[in-house]
Design brief:
four-stranded antiparallel sheet; Alpha-Beta Plaits; alpha+beta; about 20% strand; 3-hydroxy-3-methylglutaryl-coenzyme A Reductase, Chain A, domain 2; binds (R)-mevalonate
C-alpha cells in the first residue's frame, strides 16, 4: 500500500503534479495535458473555485437556438459531455417554436431550512409559541435578511416537526424566499444565527423547559424543494406531430408516445431513464449557468418519489385531436451570486439568456428538460435511439482515434448502414491505414 501523502494542499501546483505523476506512475504527457488546459490569463478565477487544482476540466459549451418560451425566443446555452443532447434539444425547440412554444408556470419559489434539536418535550407544546418564536426569528435575523427583504425575499414561515422514529428529536422547518439567488449561504447563515436562540427560548421558558436542556444538533438548508416548483407545457394538434412520427401516422405516434409516458409513470426502472432524459437538458443549462447541479438533481429526484414510488416527472393528456405534454419539476436555481457571477462562461450564459430572473431560469431549464425528453421518447417509439446517437458517437470515436478529415469522410460513408463501436471504427481505420 502507498503511504499517505502529507501536506499535499500546501504544495505549489507544479509540485502537486510532480507528486501525482510519481505516485500514480503517469506518463509524462499528462503533465503537458494538465499544463495545456490551464487558462493562459485568467487561471486565478478558477484557482478560487476549488482546492488542490492542477488543471481545468473542459466540457463543450453549446447553444440550442429557437427556444420559444412564454412567447419569447431564447438561445439556450448548454454544457454537456453527451453527444446528441444539444442536437435533440435544438430540433425539439424548433419544432415547438412552430407549435406555440413552451408555456411555463412558476407554482412557488419556497425553500426550506432545518434546525434539528434534542428536546424532551412535545411538539404540540411548541406549536403554541410558534408566532412568538417566528417574531424572535425575524428580529434575530433582521440585519442578515435586510437586503434580501428589499429584493422580495426573506423568512416567510415556520413549522415544528418531530423526526419520525427518533425519540426527542425535532426540527424547526423554516421557509425562505431568496429572490434571484439560489440562497444556500443566506439560508445557512440565518439558520446558524437562529439555532442557539431557539433552544435558549425553549430552555428558559417555564412551560417548555424539560428536565434536560434542549440542544442544537445541526442547522442546514434542505435541498428538497417541492415548493420551488415550475411547470412547463407544450401542446399542439396531433396532426402537427407528423415530423416526429417516423413511419407511423401522427395519431399512432401520439398514442405510442402516451404509452411510453404511462410506462414511465408506472414503472420505476423506466421512470429513472425517462427522467434522466429530462435531466440531459436541465443539467446542461444548470451547468452552463453555474448553478449547483447536485442540489437540483437531489431535490428533483426526491420529488419524483413524492408519491412513495419513483415516477415520471412528465404527464400527458391526449384527446382524439390534441396532444399536451407537461413537466413539473422543482428547480431551486439562482441568477445572482456564486459561480453565476465569477465564472466567465456562466456570466456569458446569463447574458445570452438576457439576464434572466431566477424564475425565468427555472422556466428555461424546464423547457430544455422537456425538449430533450420529448425528443428522446419520440425517437424511442419510432426509429429507436441508436440511429441518431450513432452518427454523433462515430464522430467522437473518430476524434478519439485521431482520424484525418479524409478518413472521417470515408468512415461516415462506411458506417451509414453498419454498427458503430470503438472496435469496429478502430478496425476500419486500421484497414485504411494499412
Ligand atoms: C440518454 O441519455 C437518455 C435516454 O435514455 C432517455 C430516455 O430513455 O428517455 C434516451
Amino acid at each position: 500500500m502507498q503511504s499517505l501523502i502529507k501536506g499535499f494542499s500546501k504544495l505549489s501546483r507544479e509540485e502537486k503534479v510532480k507528486v501525482l505523476i510519481e505516485q500514480q506512475n503517469l506518463a509524462p504527457e499528462y503533465e503537458n495535458a494538465f499544463q495545456d488546459f490551464l487558462h493562459k490569463e485568467k487561471q486565478h478565477l478558477f484557482n478560487d473555485i476549488s482546492e488542490n487544482i492542477i488543471s481545468n476540466y473542459y466540457l463543450p459549451f453549446s447553444i440550442a437556438p429557437n427556444f420559444l418560451i412564454n412567447d419569447e425566443l431564447y438561445m439556450v446555452p448548454m454544457v454537456i459531455e453527451e453527444s446528441s443532447v444539444v442536437a435533440a434539444a435544438s430540433k425539439a425547440a424548433s419544432f415547438w417554436a412552430k407549435n406555440g412554444g413552451f408555456k411555463t408556470k412558476i407554482i412557488d419559489t419556497l425553500k426550506n431550512g432545518q434546525i434539528f434539536f434534542n428536546w424532551k418535550g412535545s411538539i404540540q407544546q411548541l406549536e403554541n409559541y410558534k408566532h412568538e418564536i417566528l417574531e424572535l426569528i425575524h428580529s434575530l435575523t433582521d440585519d442578515i435578511t435586510f437586503k434580501m427583504r428589499q429584493r422580495g425575499g426573506g423568512i416567510v414561515g415556520l413549522e415544528f416537526k418531530s423526526v419520525p422514529n427518533m425519540e426527542n428529536t425535532h426540527q424547526a422547518l423554516i421557509q425562505f424566499r431568496t429572490a434571484d439567488s439560489m440562497g444556500a449561504n443566506f439560508i445557512n447563515t440565518c439558520l446558524e444565527a437562529i439555532a442557539p436562540h431557539l433552544v435558549n427560548f425553549i430552555n428558559q421558558h417555564k412551560e417548555l423547559k424539560a428536565n434536560e436542556e434542549a440542544s442544537v444538533i445541526m442547522s442546514i438548508l434542505s435541498n428538497y424543494t417541492p415548493e420551488c416548483l415550475v411547470e412547463c407545457t407544450v401542446k399542439c394538434e396531433i396532426e402537427n406531430l407528423l415530423p416526429y412520427a417516423g413511419n407511423f401516422t401522427p395519431l399512432e405516434f401520439a398514442q405510442r408516445f402516451k404509452t411510453a409516458v404511462d410506462i414511465a409513470i408506472n414503472d420505476p426502472y423506466r421512470a429513472v431513464t425517462h427522467n434522466k432524459g429530462i435531466f440531459n437538458g436541465i443539467d446542461a443549462v444548470v451547468l452552463a449557468t453555474g448553478n449547483d447541479f447536485r442540489a437540483i438533481e437531489a431535490g428533483a429526484q426526491a420529488y419524483a418519489s413524492k408519491d412513495k414510488t419513483y415516477s415520471s416527472l412528465t404527464t400527458i393528456q391526449l384527446s382524439e385531436t390534441h396532444f399536451e405534454y407537461t413537466l413539473k419539476v422543482p428547480l431551486a436555481m439562482g441568477t445572482v451570486g456564486g459561480l453565476t457571477n465569477t465564472h466567465p462562461l456562466a456570466k456569458a450564459a446569463m447574458q445570452i439568456l438576457k439576464k434572466p430572473s431566477a424564475e425565468q431560469l427555472m422556466a428555461i431549464s424546464a423547457a430544455a428538460g422537456l425538449a430533450n425528453n420529448f425528443g428522446a421518447v419520440a425517437s424511442l417509439v419510432t426509429t429507436g435511439i441508436q440511429k441518431g446517437h450513432m452518427k454523433l458517437h462515430l464522430s467522437n470515436v473518430l476524434n478519439a482515434l485521431d482520424a484525418s478529415a479524409d478518413e472521417k469522410i470515408l468512415a461516415t460513408k462506411h458506417f451509414k448502414d453498419s454498427v458503430v463501436s470503438y472496435t469496429t471504427v478502430e478496425n476500419f481505420l486500421n484497414e485504411q491505414r494499412g
